[in-house]
């Protein structure tokens, strides 16, 4: 993975450092997926043609404001019975679409850049946000193997990532995530509470009024 020459110029006062530490085990790789953005978004279109975005219902009966789909061997789903990873899309009754090769490669490269060698995700959850969509504070703990990191790719409209602590009550920091930013997190940060503040309206050249987030996981 290479960065734009512009970004690499040491004399550019706006140049962001490539890897920004967030907490122990967690890092933001600014612009890491920018170059791959169009290919990744094209692949999102192919996945969602097979398994369309839908609003899942939480175990408490609330419809989530973020729309989700999945690709890979297993997908994250929620319904009245709970949260789980499932090899079958409950809407179609068929396996989820396979993980596109550019997804697999980017996840692997980003994990390696963050110090997690040989990351092999078996699931990719795809989240779609429209203006006003939010994701309340939660932990990602439905994966069996918590030693593997999570790789999270932001595409389209920017968002405010809420980065809390290991207890739900810990007040979250606000981190702006723009198109192409990748967050890799694991180790001591793996169970940190996090969320997304209500998305601000905007118009992105590649996604229009949407933000797309890919989170890659090794679920078992
Ligand atoms: C999002 N991300 O950025 C939601 N979870 O749209 C997550 O919930 C998330 O970014 C675990 C690890 C990284 C994440
Ligand atoms: Fe999460």
In summary, what is this structure?
It catalyses: a methylated nucleobase within DNA + 2-oxoglutarate + O2 = a nucleobase within DNA + formaldehyde + succinate + CO2. This protein has helices spanning 5-8, 37-50, 101-113, and strands at 19-23, 26-29, 67-72, 75-79, 82-86, 123-129, 135-138, 150-156, 159-163, 173-177, 182-185, 194-196, 211-217.
Written account of the structure:
It is an enzyme of class 1 (oxidoreductase). GO terms for molecular function: broad specificity oxidative DNA demethylase activity; ferrous iron binding; methyltransferase activity; oxidative RNA demethylase activity. Its cofactor is Fe(2+). InterPro entries: Alkb, AlkB-like, AlkB-like_sf, Oxoglu/Fe-dep_dioxygenase_dom. Belongs to the alkB family. The protein has 220 residues and is of the alpha+beta class. It has a single domain, classed as Alpha-ketoglutarate-dependent dioxygenase AlkB-like (Jelly Rolls, Sandwich), CATH 2.60.120. 14% of the residues lie in helices and 30% in strands. The protein contains three helices and 13 strands; from the N terminus they run αββαβββαββββββββ. A seven-stranded antiparallel sheet has the order 1-2-11-8-13-6-3, covered by helices on one side. A four-stranded antiparallel sheet has the order 7-12-9-10, with no helix packed on it. The two termini are 27 Å apart. The N terminus is likely disordered. Bound molecules: N-[(3-hydroxypyridin-2-yl)carbonyl]glycine and fe (iii) ion (FE).
């Amino acid at each position: 993975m290479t960065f734009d020459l512009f970004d690499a110029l040491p004399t550019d006062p706006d140049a962001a450092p490539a890897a920004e530490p967030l907490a122990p085990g967690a890092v933001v790789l600014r612009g890491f997926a920018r170059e791959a953005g169009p290919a990744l978004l094209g692949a999102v279109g192919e996945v969602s043609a097979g398994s369309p975005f839908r609003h899942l219902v939480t175990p408490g009966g609330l419809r989530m404001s973020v729309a989700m789909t999945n690709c890979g061997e297993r997908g994250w789903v929620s319904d009245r019975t709970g949260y789980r990873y499932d090899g079958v899309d409950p809407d179609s009754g068929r396996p989820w679409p396979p993980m596109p090769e550019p997804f697999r490669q980017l996840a692997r490269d980003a994990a390696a850049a963050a110090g997690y060698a040989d990351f092999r995700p078996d699931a990719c959850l795809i989240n779609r946000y429209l203006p006003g969509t939010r994701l309340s504070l939660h932990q990602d703990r439905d994966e069996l193997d918590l030693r593997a990191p999570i790789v999270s790719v932001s595409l389209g409209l920017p968002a405010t990532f809420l980065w809390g602590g290991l207890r739900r009550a810990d007040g979250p920091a606000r981190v702006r995530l723009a198109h192409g930013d990748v967050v890799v997190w694991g180790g001591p940060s793996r169970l940190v509470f996090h969320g997304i503040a209500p998305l601000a309206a905007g118009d992105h050249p590649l996604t229009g009024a949407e933000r797309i987030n890919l989170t890659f996981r090794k679920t078992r």
